[in-house]
Amino acid sequence: MFSKTQRRYVWWLLLPLLVYVVGMPMDLMDVDAAQYGAISWEMLAHDLFLQITYKGSDYLDKPPLLFWTSIVAFKLFGISNWSYRLIPVLVSLIGVYSLYRFARLYYTKQVAYWAALLWASCQACILMNHDIRTDTMLTAWVTFAIWQTAAYLRHPERRSLTGIGIGVGLAMLAKGPIGLVAPALALGFDLIWRKEWKQFFRPAWLYVMVIVAIILLPMSIGLYEQFDAHPEKGVSGLRFYYWTQSFGRITGENPWRNDAGLFFFVHSFFWSFLPWSLLAVVAYVLESRRVWRYRFRKLKRQEFIAWGGFTLVFIAFSLSKFKLPHYTFVVFPLIALITAKWVVVLGRALKWQKVVMRLRYTQRFIELLLLLLLLTMLLWIFPLHSWWGWACVAAGIALYALSYRYATLPHEKVLIPSFVAICVVNIFLNAHVYPALLRYQAPSIVGRYLRQNKLQNHTYALLSFYHPSLEFYAQYIVPDLKDSIEVRLEKMDIQDAAQKKVMEKEAGKSFLQSFTKTRTADFYLYVDASYKELLDEMGISYETVMELERFPVTELTLPFLNPATRKQQVSKQYLLKIKRVNEGDETKRQ
After folding, report:
1. Reported confidence tier of residue 482, pLDDT bands at 50, 70, 90
2. Nearest Cα to Cα of residue 240 among 222, 213, 215
3. Which of 109, 381, 444, 573 allows an S-S link to 469, with CB 3.0 to 4.6 Å?
């Protein structure tokens, strides 16, 4: 069925697949992944489908595709870490295959194979397949839509048109209008650059629009029923989804904004596209020269889709007033194609052999840094103590060494060792380093303990940070008493920061005193150190059930990674059993 070369590339693809599978049992990370998992559990628990809520309140931020697929997986396989990740990982593989098929429309099998392998193995794709957010399926369906559109323009068929509608519809259902904008910019630029004006006016696009509308209809009905049919809520769900959430970040209508600079995504690209970042820069420069050279010519076998899609979407996101590194991941398959194409082309051209040799040296340096980083993690930051673990590390390094034997062609000598190195490193990151890191995600540990001991409906939280993993692992909406304290502070309307801090403490004492009096039985309180001190000052009797250390695991710092200074970077967390105070004990204490 497969030729010898094809079998070899299928075997190579198993390496990033192994990385994804090893990462599936990991705990969901706060904030986004754990929040989406908690929303999915809540929708399942309350038999919701079109209405999206979080902690009992309306949720209007992300479209529902990830929630729907999670609900399906939870129903089939139970609520777990791996079932939450299952469907997004499978969809991600569809994206990898789509990139291969898109590349085959214009390039050789070698280019297509390596485009798929570069995308599947880059740090962004690996990250998206364990820290599952809406971008995982967005990227896959956008790539699918681009492939189907390119296929239709080459060979107009009804099935390709249907594929375009499905791809765009599901991409929009995953993360909003960017699911339409990204492929439209990519294909639109290509058609303009090749002067294919008549393609814009094909009546067949109406058929695509109908399919997209059908796919979006259930979500649109849900948004209308939940928001637009209730003007007292003061927000239009349809307008927010179709305009404010995406385009509002450029116009300023969306209140979300941060201080990231214009070149934020340029900086983040160098780590997120590892180990191919420097190769991508070289390839992008060469591709830009080609695009300019063939400008405005009617060329049938040339494509400008990858360059146009990557460049225009990258610029659009750079103009946004709110930026996070994963926003640009949606067009990373396109830069993977550009990189694979030019590495293969340069490897075949005799006049470029010196350049290829320098690229090989550059990649060897990156591989060395990656392996040294892994050993640093395993020996010092989060030490690996098991002998079988080190046996696996030795096997991984041996596989990396053997990869040189399988690299025969010039482009393979550049790519294969780096491909194996990044996969080996991430296998051990997913198998050991991230699980060790997640021991500092205290809310997920407490939530799992509450569920196992059936303490959910006897527990309250009093925390100074956002903690969606508590709800997901407890499978219960744990009431956060801090919300009630903040309501009291808002009524006081205090402007001075120092005075507000004092009054917050007094409000906390007042609330806790009245709250504990109303309890008819012992209860549990999950608190951080500041609120535990408040309980001590008030003389409230408690038993310490759990004492944990917490650090926001998605915001790593060098002092935290350094074992010598880690203790100073973590915050203390406690699960306390509060004993009911009766009238006589309260009188004596006063």
Report:
1. confident
2. 222
3. 444
- CB count within 10 Å of CB 121 equals 27
Q: Count the Cβ atoms, other than its own, within 10 Å of residue 345.
A: 17
Give CA–CA dist 36/121, Å, rounded: 25
Residues 99 and 119 sit within 8 Å (Cβ to Cβ): yes
Q: Which helix (H) or strand (E) holds 420?
A: helix 410-428
571-578 sheet: strands from edge to edge: 459-462, 523-528, 571-578, 542-550
Look at phi and psi of residue 186 and say left if phi exceeds 0, alpha if psi is from -120 to 50, else beta.
alpha
Pairing of strands 523-528, 57-58: unpaired
Dig out the tokens for 105 from the structure.
Answer: 């429309």
Q: Which of 63, 72, 186 is nearest to 133 (CA)?
A: 63
Furthest CA-CA distance within the chain = 93
Tens of pLDDT along 162-217? 999 999 999 999 998 999 999 999 999 999 988 888 888 889 999 999 999 999 99
Assign 286 to helix, strand or coil: helix
Q: What angle do CA 28, 14, 343 make, to 5 degrees?
A: 105
Residues 6+ apart with CB under 8 A from 510: 488
* 49 vs 61: CA distance, rounded Å: 16
Of 74, 105, 73, 78, nearest in space to 90 by CA: 73
Cα–Cα distance measured from residue 499 to residue 570, given in angstroms and rounded to the nearest whole number: 27
398: which 2 tokens? 């041996």
Distance CA 275, CA 269 (A): 11
How many Å is the Cα radius of gyration of the chain? Answer: 27
- Burial state string for 284-314 with b = 16 or more CB within 10 A and e = fewer than 16: bebbeebbeeeeeeeeeeebbbbbbbbbbbb
At a CB cut-off of 8 Å and minimum separation 6, what does 225 contact? 50, 51
CA 500/CA 485 separation, integer angstroms: 12
Angstrom distance (rounded) from CA 144 to CA 87: 16
In tens, the pLDDT along 374-415 reads 999 999 999 999 999 999 999 999 999 999 888 888 888 999
Residue 237 and residue 228 in contact, taking contact as beta carbons nearer than 8 Å = yes
Quote the CA–CA distance of 143 and 97 in Å, as a whole number: 9
Round to whole Å and give the CA distance between 542 and 216.
Answer: 52
- Contacts of 14 by beta carbon, 8 Å cutoff, 6+ apart: none
Q: How far apart are CA 576 and CA 545, in angstroms?
A: 5
Q: What share of the chain is helix, strand, coil (3-state, %, to 5)?
A: 70, 5, 25
CA angle (354, 359, 361) in 5-degree steps = 95
Query: CA dihedral defined by 206, 209, 213, 215, rounded to 10 degrees?
Result: 120
Which tokens hold the place of 194?
A: 């090749």
Q: How far, in Å, CA of 42 to CA of 53, rounded?
A: 7
Is the whole-model pTM more than 0.85? yes
Which residue shows structure tokens 């992008």?
Answer: 284
134-154 vs 178-193: helix axis angle to the nearest 10?
Answer: 30
Which positions ≥6 away from 266 have C-beta within 8 Å?
318
CA distance 403 to 406: 5
Cβ(88)–Cβ(33) below 8 Å: no
Distance between terminal CA atoms of the chain? 84
